[in-house]
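ingest -> validate -> predict -> emit
validate: passed (alphabet ok, no gaps, 352 aa)
predict: started
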Amino acid sequence: MPSRPSPSVSIGFDGQIFRRQRRGGISRYFRELAQELGTAGAEVWMAGERRWPAHQPWRQADVVHATYYGGRPYRLRRHQRLVSSLFDMTPERHPEHFFLPGLRSPHANKAGWLEASDLILSISAASADDLAFFQPNLRAPLRVIHLATAIDRLVPQPVAALEGRRFWLMVGKRHAYKNGLTLLRALSLLHRGDANRAGHRDQPLLVCAGGGPWRTEERRWISGQGLEGAVLQLAATDPLLAWLYRHAEAVLVPSLAEGFSLPLIEALACDTPVVASDLEVHREVGQSYATLLPALNAGAWAEWLAEGPRADLDRPRQRLGGEAYERLRQHYGMERLVEEHLEAYGGLRSGA
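emit:
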């Protein structure tokens, strides 16, 4: 890996996302990024975070990195540079899944923030391509910087109820475009097929970590299909997630749309098989280590799940080969993420 650029620019992260979510993929990204940049020697200030010294407020930074799209875009000083992140274009591609009126949704302000920015950082090439379609005349420069994970650094905390049990894992929200209902439909087909065959065998449990308690439509389906003993929903801290990733037979990601899909690289870091919907971004991120299936084809998901234990053959290290696996893990590691952000911020300061 090339040597890390010497930090020469101060970066301020505004507090928008932390007012909206204390825990979540985007807030976690900014919190970890700020910590890692500080560790690398950069001057970093985070609005609303007590651990950052108060004598140098984030408002004085050379670069303000906006953490969401609330209100109107701004610069707090004349020569300050504004950076915005593009996480996805899902509301633009699938407006049917977003019910908040335009005036209440921060996504209504996204186009204005991106247009006003001196630099846009997209978390995937797929999201950048979507942006080019929906805002073809955008003048702000754009750079793709993939997300990273440090989940393999965490000390895992065992889930007592799952020790010694086989299970599949879905992480995060399940409703709307996250498409968790397709997994429940697949599970129903799988168990119905087992019941009709002689020699019924136990199937792994479907564990849904995070995303909140079962919703009404989920409870109705689970009860109606007799799946109460086949599924488990639980809240998950990061150490619990680290254990779940390491012990799952496979990580399942059936989404209809994603801007990146962290579970793919978290599973990669833990060398756990991944089965994901066949999306542009899953091809980009999952490359050849993820098995891709049609998002809404419950039969295809049930068929994959029914084939039985073959985890060793589907592990990312096995599918990629040792050297390619280590290269990809390094690419999705925090050191590369920090290096590319420092280069991007430094380019703004120098006018590159």
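The radius of gyration is 21 Å.
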